Input
Amino acid sequence: MDSLLVSPPKIHIFEVKNFEGDFLIEDNRMRLISGKEIKNPLIHLSRTESLFRQLL
Output
C-alpha cells in the first residue's frame, strides 16, 4: 500500500507504479505491447485490500 486516505464515509487505498509504455490487459494479465509480461498492479491492490479488511 503506497498511500491511504481516510475520510468519512470511505477509505481509499492507493497503489502507485511507475510503468512506462503501452500495455495490454487480458485475462488478468498485464503485458507490454512487445509481449513481455509484468506484474499486474490490480492483483496486488486486491491482495492489499483483503489484508486491510482483515486488519480492520
Q: What stands out?
A: The radius of gyration is 14 Å. The chain is about 25% helix and 35% strand. Helices lie at 41-55. The CA atoms of residues 3 and 47 lie 15 Å apart.
